[in-house]
Each structure stands twice: as C-alpha cells, then as structure tokens.
Write a structure and sequence with these properties.
The complex is a heterotrimer. Helices cover 31% and strands 29% of the residues of chain A. By secondary structure, chain A is an alpha+beta fold. In chain A, the strands form 2 sheets. Chain A has a 5-stranded mixed beta sheet with strand order 1-2-3-5-4. Chain A has a 4-stranded antiparallel beta sheet with strand order 7-6-8-9, with helices on both faces. The N terminus of chain B is likely disordered. By secondary structure, chain B is an alpha+beta fold. Chain C is an alpha+beta fold. Chain C has one domain: Ribosomal Protein S5, domain 2, CATH 3.30.230. The N terminus of chain C is likely disordered. Classes of the chains: A alpha+beta, B alpha+beta, C alpha+beta. Chains A and B meet through β3, β5 and α4 of A and β8 and β11 of B. β17 of chain B pairs antiparallel with β10 of chain C, so a sheet runs across the interface.
Chain lengths: 242, 415, 255
C-alpha cells in the first residue's frame, strides 16, 4: 500500500509528512469531576476526568510522603470501526493506563500532597490512531483544570516512518501499516522527555529524525494547550467580573 | 434586585474576618499562576469536619449575572435553614454560588471541589449513596416538600436538555444528550446477522450500557458493571416490548432482509460520560434521538445466486434508509422523596429517595414498560397516580425531544 | 410429567417451532383453553415447604406447576472486610439456573437481571435496620423453569427469609399476568410466556397493601394496567395466605 502520494508527497488523508491533524481541546466537559477535558486529534477523541486530590480510598495503597496517582484507560464500545464488546482491564488498556500514569506522575508535584490520591480516568470515544498521545494531552488539560500542582505540562505526540519518510501524528491506517511508531511525551518548558515508546526496529540516525519530528509535534501541542488554559483562565476571570 | 435593600443575611455577606485570606493570598505567588485560576478574593469558612486541619473555602463571582434573580426566588423559611457548615454550603448553592475550593493543610494549594467530600459510595445494590450531612438531607427533602428544589426547579420540571446528533461518525447513528450535569452518548451500529430461529421474521436489537469511570470514581474497574447491567435491562424492558414483539418501540420486522436468513442486528451502545442522576431518562432520550439520526444502508438481495441457500446481500454505501422512530417511547422516572415524587432527580436527590418508578410512555399515551427501582413499598393507588403523571410529563418530554431532534438535524445540515 | 417424553431433541426443536407458530395464532383469539386446563384467572396450584436445605439458616422450596425453585438464606453474617461500614444490614441476592432447568441444556448459570429484581423486591420488606454491619445472602436456584420463574423465586425467597427468622414487615408474594391481545392470563406457563404480548409482575406485601416491585413490558393502556394490577393484588393476598399457613404448619410441626 502506498502511504505517500508519489507525485504530490501528500499522505492518505491529504496531510504533508510533517503536518499534524487538527487538534482541539476543551476544558470542563464533565461537570461532576474536579477537572476534566476533551481532546481531539483529528478523528481521535478522548475525555479525561480527574478526581482528587482526595483521601486515599484503599488505605493500604497510601504513600506517606507523596500523593498516589492512579489512572484508568477505557475504550467505548463504539470507539472503533468494528463493534466489539471489550472486557475491562484487558492487557492493552492496562498497559496504556500504566504508561499514562507514569507519564503524569513525573509532572505532578506529588510531594506537596502526601497521603492523598489523584485519579485520572481517560475514556476513548473515538479511536483513530494516537490514542495514547491524545489521552496524555487530555489528562494534562484535566489535571490543570483540577488545579493539581504540576511542574510543567506534559504533551505527547507520535511519529512514524513509512515509505522512507518520517510522518508526524499517524492516523489509524498509517498506524496499522506495521511500520515503526514512536510515541514521545515531553515536559514542554523543561525540554525533557518523559515518555518514549517504539515497537519496531529503526536505524539510529533515522530514529533521531523521527523522534525530533515527534518532539516538534509535542511542542506545537504544548503551545496550543497553553493557549487553551490561558483562555479558560480568562473566562473564569471574566465570570467573576474581575 | 438592589443589593442595599437586602436583609443583612450573614450568608450573603460574610464578615471580613482575619481568616479570609488564609492560603490563597499569601505573599508568595502561586507556583503555577499561569495554570491555576485562583481567585484573589476567597471566603473561607472553617468547617467542623473530622479532620482538624481541613477547612472549606468557597468563592463566588462578585458580579454573577444570575445571582440576583436566584436570590429573589429564595423562599427559605427560617426554621428550615439548617445551621452549621452544611447549611451554609447548601444555602450558598441555592443562591447560585459554586463552591470551588477546598484546601487541606495550608502550605499546599489544592483546589478540590465540594464533590470530593461527597465521594459517591456504591453499596452492594448499585444504589448510589451520596455523602450528605443531616442538614443537607433535610434541606433537600424540605425543598421538595415545598415544591422548590435546590436548583430552583419545581417537582415536575426537567433540567434543561441539550441534544447533539452525529457525534460518532463511525456509527450508523449517534446522539449525545445532556440533562444538567448528566451527559450520555449513544451510538447505533447495524450489522448483518441471522434472525433468531424462533422469530424468523424479525431483526435483532441489543442494548448495552457502559458507565465510564469519568462519570464517578466508583465506576472504576468493575465498579460500574452492576449499574450498567441494571440500566441495560431496564432499557430493554422499556423499549423492546413484550416477548412476542408487541408494543416494541423499535419495529423489529423492519430490520428483516430475508426471512430466516439475513437481518440487521442493531447494536445500541450507551456510554455514561458524566452522571448526575436520572441516567435512565437521559439514556432513553439519547436512544430515541440516535435512532432518528440513524441511517441503515439500503441492501439489495440476490436470492438464488448461491446454491447453498445463503442469499447474496449487497450493502449500498450511498443510500440509507431512515428509521421510523415515532413509536419509540420516552422514559420518565418518578423519584419518590418523602411524600412527593419528582422528575429528573439529581444524584443528591436520588440519594434521598425511598423508591423510584421508571415508566416508558409512547406517543399514544400507552405505557410500554415499567420498572420499579429502590426498595420501599408503594401503595398501588400511588403507582396508578404516578402512571398518569408520567403520561402527562412524557407527552411534554416527547414534544420537547421532537423539536430538539428537528433543531439538531437542521444544524447538522447547515454544517 | 404431562407431556410425552420425546427421544430426539433435534426433531423436538423443529416440532416445537411449528407448535409455537400455531400457538401464537391461537393465543390471539378471544377464547382458548390453557394447556393445563386452568381458566384465565386461575393460578397454578402452589406447593410450598420450608427447611429444604439443612446448612442454610433458612430455606424454602416452591413448586408452581412445572416451575421448581429452591432458595436458601444465609446470615445475617459479618459483611466482608472490604465493604464500608453501614448502619443498616445488606442484602445480597443471587439467582442461578441449573443446567437442566430449561428444555435446551446448558442455559444455566447466574441470572443478573433476576438477581437485581429479586433484590429490589425483598429490600423493601426486610427491616434492614435490625442487623447493622452484617449481610444476608439469598441464593435462589431454579431447578426447573416452567414459566413465571421470577414471581416464584420472589415468593419462595420471602418464605426462606421468614424461615431464617429475619425481621420483615410482611411476607412478600408475587404474581405475574401475561397479556394476549385483549385477554389477561394469570400465572403463565413458559409456553404461554414465549408468545405473550406483554407481562406485568407485581410483588406486594398484602398486609400493608404496599407494592415492592413492579415490572411491565409491552404496550398497555391505563385501564388495562388497572385491571391487571387488581387481578395480581388479589392473587397475591391469596398466595400470602398459603405462605402463612405453610409457615404455621412448619412451626407447629417442629415444636
């Protein structure tokens, strides 16, 4: 299958190799949660809700010098093209939950909230590649909405290598092509990588290019997320009549 | 309303006390001032909670447009006004102020909304209990008895309902319905299948509901399963009619393609994204909207093409058939609190219920299904009374939904 | 059993399909006779016994026509450690079917819908305040499913609870009616249930005249609901009499 048009160099969905899909973030989509956000990357759509910091529910998990961060990733039955009843807690969602948890833990100032618990729930409404990245971006927004202290914002983006070209932000078709898929999460201001996943082999010089592309994507997302948060803060200010 | 003429209500004008600027306006600026929208004016009321270090902070917008009208609606009789912190919170909530801050020990700046304290606790029954104090409980019950609920509604008033269609492009039809803070998404997928051998002249419909943990932390893991199955069964009872198929909201014979061989299997998947009571009504409304939004691909059947009797079915990509949703009922849940019953209960109100009856009503005013939830017994005459009320409310809801569907379709066409 | 034993399951299934089609036509008529010779408003003879299982703190066996149910009640016993403190007792209900309970083998296992309906039906009748911090487990096992399973399970469970000495406001009795065209048929058999247009099931406490559970499917007019409810409530009070006498008998027999 041809993933790049040989004439124009456009991808299947009409993007250039280093184009990202349309992204959109919205804060406060779940009224009852302490912080919540919706994040869309093209057709991928996820909702994240944050509950906490609150008392630790299961006392045996309590950590005395820092907050306990928990995460659960779930996919809606209708999120993929073919309808499938998926059991909760299958291996894939457990793995993604773990990845999101570890990534978010690095940016949350957990030492400020000893003996408390922060729950991050991400729900995939539509999956079209890059759910992992979208979940992390949504979780960042939701955590900021919840007012959880963070040292920086984490953003994530994926990049792949198909038809000898590094491609930014793979969609489902490109993702299922079986090529290498690099998911990167960075702390935007500190310029530190907190998440790096790849499940194929790639020569190291090409890998550097692909990763650089993904990092560029992360930075673009970080800028957007910052804008969304600022806008939200302004709105809150406006509501209060300041 | 003129602020000066108001009685000097200690709740409305918290005295400027030294506590007032405890953690938030300390000289050190907040760590993430760009991220955290901390209000600079915070009213803090020390709460007599179990934890000595804990206090509760409330902020409210100084110039909230809705504050004045809400206040003028206030009809709280002095003896009803509960004392103490809980009463304070509910009174402020009643005035339209949103509690937003809750801090633990002063050095760390946390913003936890009030809902934390009321972590939803699931009992074995799937009935949700909201951690409310005695004062708050009394306040809710008292409000219902006086026909003025905590959010200013009357007993038989629904919260504002908002409808969106086509939210899931991959599905044949989808809808998102919001009732106050309750938010559900329903998608409809049609797949080719084989009819049930005992009912060769009918298609199949399956309803699955899923409670996302985003709605409440208690739905984490397998926590939501019990509620999910209960909702799925209740909806099946309310929408799919009797065993013979009579009185079904969805005409199953319209799903048939070749008798005994091929039919459409309709999968109705619901997802509860945010839950603030009255999930069943919201889900049923979303199913109704999603069905009217659904397009079933047109099929052409080539009988006798294959010798083994399996007909050749060609599914069209372009032509879609619309569903006839005029027969799909709406569900009205009447929740009994004290001596009265209310529609569209919030989760706080649901926690105070003695029992609830979900009644599905179709366009002809016939009852298509009924489920009683919650334990306490009801007098048979009360049930009949509830049915007649539900019929009346259902009619209103139905016409409201119809206009919402039309509006949603019009806006979808505009795009 | 009244029906002739059939040797081949296969031929029977195609046969039963045909029969079902015929019956469906028949049931739409205004007058037909029920397979067991009852008239429309006549319930099946009820056979009730307490003390069916020795290990349980209370148990009961019920047989309504072909429907046979055994319910055992355990507790009140200490709630699981993971459960949070509760000032009232908890009720845990579970309904399961044996593998041989239905004509098609292997349809057994737990029945979640019935478990939750049973729970709701009993919850209102038990005085849960009398045993805080503890749990009562109600396990219902359907030995043979012959129609009207849930009403029989509920009735039998309330008898078992009484046998276990758990405080209740009243015994709960449960009866269902099926609707065929214009006819209302009380206490349907599974054959009738398969072709019904709608069903209404009531669980009530006759002494208090309170309905603890009510489910309804199919399309009904208010007048018809009225009629069906009256029919059921009447049958419930009669069934409660039988339950009461069964308990009295058991009490006088043991002493």
């Amino acid at each position: 299958m041809e993933y790049l048009d040989s004439l124009t160099g456009f991808r299947l969905d009409g993007r250039r190799p280093n184009d990202m899909r349309q992204i959109r973030g919205e804060i406060g989509v779940v009224a009852k949660a302490d912080g919540s956000a919706l994040f869309e990357m093209g057709n991928t759509k996820v909702i994240a809700a944050v509950y906490g910091p609150r008392e630790v529910q299961n006392k045996s998990q309590q950590v005395n010098n820092q907050a306990l961060v928990r995460c659960e990733y779930s996919m809606a039955n209708f999120s993929t093209g073919d309808r499938a009843r998926r059991p909760k807690g299958d291996r894939r969602s457990t793995e993604i939950s773990l990845v999101i948890r570890q990534t978010m833990e690095t940016c949350i100032l957990t030492h400020l909230m000893p003996r408390s618990q922060i729950d991050i729930f991400v729900q995939v409404l539509q999956a079209d590649g890059g759910t992992r990245s979208a979940c992390i971006n949504a979780a960042t927004l939701a955590l900021a909405d919840a007012g959880v202290p963070m040292c920086d914002i984490v953003t994530s983006c994926s990049a792949g290598y198909l038809s000898s070209t590094p491609l930014l932000d793979l969609n489902y078709i490109e993702d299922s092509a079986g090529g290498p898929d690099v998911t990167v999460g960075i702390l935007a201001k500190m310029d530190k990588v907190t998440l790096l996943q790849m499940d194929a082999k790639l020569p190291i010089d090409i890998f550097e290019n692909v990763m650089q592309l993904a990092i560029e994507g992360c930075k673009a997302i970080a800028q957007y997320i910052r804008g969304v948060l600022l806008e939200n803060t302004k709105q809150l200010e406006c509501c209060r009549g300041v | 309303m003129d602020g000066q003429s108001l009685p000097r209500n200690p709740l409305a004008y918290p005295p400027a006390s030294p506590r007032r600027s405890l953690p938030f306006s300390s000289s050190r600026p907040p760590l993430h001032s760009s991220l955290l929208p901390y209000p600079d004016e915070v009213f803090i009321f020390l709460a007599p909670t179990a934890h000595p270090l804990r206090c509760l902070a409330l902020w409210f917008p100084a110039a909230q447009p809705s504050a004045a009208p809400t206040y003028s609606r206030q009809r709280v009789a002095p003896p009803l006004l509960p004392s103490g912190y809980c009463g304070l919170v509910s009174s402020l909530r009643r005035l339209g102020w949103r509690p937003a801050a809750y801090c633990s020990s002063p050095p760390s700046r946390l913003r936890i909304s009030l809902s934390h304290r009321r972590a939803l606790v699931g009992s074995a029954t799937g009935k949700r209990m909201v951690g409310l104090s005695e004062g708050e409980k009394r306040f809710i019950r008292g409000g219902i008895a006086q026909d003025l609920r905590t959010d200013g509604r009357q007993r038989l008033h629904y919260r504002p309902i908002s409808v969106e269609t086509g939210v899931i492009p991959q599905a044949n039809g989808s809808a998102r319905v919001r009732l106050g803070a309750t938010d559900v998404i329903v998608s409809i997928k049609a797949e080719l299948g084989k009819p049930h051998p005992l009912q060769p002249d009918k298609g199949k419909v399956a309803i699955f509901i899923d409670c996302s943990p985003t709605a409440a932390p208690m739905f984490e893991g397998r926590g939501g399963e019990e509620l999910s199955t209960e909702l799925s069964f209740a909806l099946q009872r309310c929408l799919l009619g009797g065993r013979s198929g009579a009185g079904a909201g969805i005409d199953l014979s319209s799903l048939l393609i070749v008798e005994g061989k091929v039919c459409w299997d309709l999968y109705i998947d619901g997802l509860v994204v945010s839950s603030d009571g009255n999930l069943l009504d919201a889900l049923a409304a979303a199913i109704k909207v999603a069905l009217s939004n659904a397009g079933i691909p047109k099929v052409t059947v080539n009988l006798g093409a294959s010798p083994n009797g399996q007909p050749d079915v060609d599914v069209s990509d372009e032509e879609f058939l619309q569903f006839d949703t005029s027969g799909v009922p709406v569900v009205v849940t009447l929740t009994k609190v004290g001596k009265h019953y209310i529609v569209d209960a919030t989760s706080e109100e649901e926690s105070q219920m003695s029992s609830a009856v979900s009644i599905s009503v179709n366009r002809h005013g016939h009852i298509c299904g009924l489920t009683k939830r919650g334990g306490a017994g009801l007098d048979p005459s009360v049930i009949l009374d509830m049915i007649s009320v539900a019929k009346h409310v259902g009619e209103q809801l139905m016409s409201l939904l119809d206009s919402e569907i039309a509006a949603a379709e019009a806006s979808a066409e505009d795009q | 059993m009244a029906t002739n034993p059939s040797t081949y399951a296969l031929s029977q299934s195609s046969d039963s399909k045909q029969r079902l089609q015929q019956r469906r036509g028949l049931f739409q008529e205004t007058e037909w006779t029920r397979s067991d010779g009852r008239n429309f408003h006549q319930c099946r003879p009820a056979f009730l016994r307490t003390g069916a299982a020795n290990a349980a703190s209370g148990s009961a066996y019920a047989e309504f026509g072909a429907t046979k149910v055994i319910v055992s009640v355990f507790g009140p016993r200490e709630s699981k450690k993971a459960m949070m403190y509760s000032g009232t007792g908890r009720l845990n209900c579970n309904v399961s079917y044996t593998t041989f309970s239905t004509p098609v083998r292997g349809q057994g296992s737990d029945h979640k819908e019935y478990s939750s309906l049973l729970h709701k039906a009993l919850e209102g009748a038990i005085i849960l305040e009398t045993f805080p911090k503890t749990t009562v487990d109600v396990f219902a096992l359907v030995l043979e499913s012959g129609g009207g399973d849930l009403p029989v399970i509920i009735t039998c469970a309330s008898l078992a609870l009484a046998d276990a000495g758990i405080m209740m406001y009243d015994l709960v009795a449960s009866v269902s009616v099926s609707c065929f065209g214009r006819n209302l048929v009380i206490d349907p058999t599974s054959e009738e249930e398969a072709c019904q247009d709608g069903t209404l099931m009531i669980t009530c406490m006759p002494a208090r005249n309170e309905v603890t559970q009510l489910t309804l499917t199919g399309e009904w007019t208010t007048a018809k609901i009225n009629e069906a409810m009256e029919l059921c409530l009447d049958a419930c009070s009669k069934l409660a009499e039988i339950m009461r006498s069964c308990l009295k008998e058991a009490a006088s027999g043991s002493s």
